[in-house]
């Protein structure tokens, strides 16, 4: 017994011990990931289909960039002049000042009434300022990436592109004055169209921004005319 016991102890000392315990090694997360990937729905792996709105925006951006590049030879000074001619910093204070002057005792007519044309124009310009600002904040479409950094930003809403405030303002003024009997009408709408086109050529706006702004301006002129007729029928402040 003693010899057998010593042989067993000797064999234990001589026999090599395992250096690693494979049953305690951490399992690789790869099989679990592969299992998750195989159980993923094919719809989740499929690329998302482009929406109609996204396609329209992409086409609008491509056409706008093409027009901007095509008309780069146009003198920038001319485009900047059209930009200033449609600026709200001119079109809002000037009609308000003229309206106040027309209602002053020194310049008012015999009844002391203000000019209805100026009153309607000021109402339309204020309405345009509110509507354009609201739509810009709601839509939040960024301006073109190639827009130069020489643009004046009056309020925070001016950082957004849709719709064009210059375009809406120009077509509001042209439509309202044309409806009020100003001649020649062609000169008014030629100025409004050139001002709107300059927004795309300067890189300030996309084409859809300008088209939407023009439609909004015409609608605002129509609304201002309705408001003016209502006020003329109810008030003696204006002589219509």
From TrEMBL:
UniProt domain Phosphatidic acid phosphatase type 2/haloperoxidase: residue ranges? 118-225
This entry's Gene Ontology molecular function terms read: sphingosine-1-phosphate phosphatase activity
Give the residue spans that cross the bilayer: 90-108, 114-139
- Signal keyword on record: no
Keyword Transmembrane helix annotated: yes
Q: Which UniProt keywords apply?
A: Membrane, Transmembrane, Transmembrane helix
Instruction: List, alphabetically, the CDD domains matched.
Output: PAP2_containing_2_like
Name of protein: Phosphatidic acid phosphatase type 2/haloperoxidase domain-containing protein
């Amino acid at each position: 017994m003693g010899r057998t016991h010593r042989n067993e102890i000797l064999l234990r000392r001589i026999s090599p011990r395992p250096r690693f315990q494979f049953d305690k090694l951490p399992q690789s997360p790869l099989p679990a990931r592969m299992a998750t990937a195989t159980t993923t729905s094919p719809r989740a792996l499929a690329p998302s289909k482009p929406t109609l709105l996204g396609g329209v925006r992409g086409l609008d951006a491509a056409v706008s960039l093409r027009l901007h590049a095509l008309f780069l030879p146009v003198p920038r000074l001319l485009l900047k002049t059209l930009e200033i001619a449609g600026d709200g910093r001119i079109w809002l204070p000037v009609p308000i000042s003229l309206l106040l002057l027309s209602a002053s005792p020194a310049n008012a007519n015999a009844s002391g009434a203000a000019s209805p044309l100026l009153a309607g124009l000021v109402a339309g310009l204020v309405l345009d300022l509110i509507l354009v600002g609201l739509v810009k904040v709601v839509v939040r479409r960024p301006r073109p990436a190639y827009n130069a950094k020489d643009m004046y930003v009056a309020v925070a809403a001016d950082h957004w592109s849709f719709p064009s405030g210059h375009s809406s303002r120009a077509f509001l003024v042209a439509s309202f004055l044309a409806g009020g009997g100003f001649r020649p009408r062609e000169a008014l709408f030629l100025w409004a169209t050139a001002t709107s086109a300059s927004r795309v050529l300067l890189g300030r706006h996309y084409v859809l921004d300008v088209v939407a702004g023009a439609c909004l301006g015409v609608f605002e002129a129509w609304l201002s005319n309705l408001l003016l007729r209502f006020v003329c029928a109810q008030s003696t402040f204006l002589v219509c």
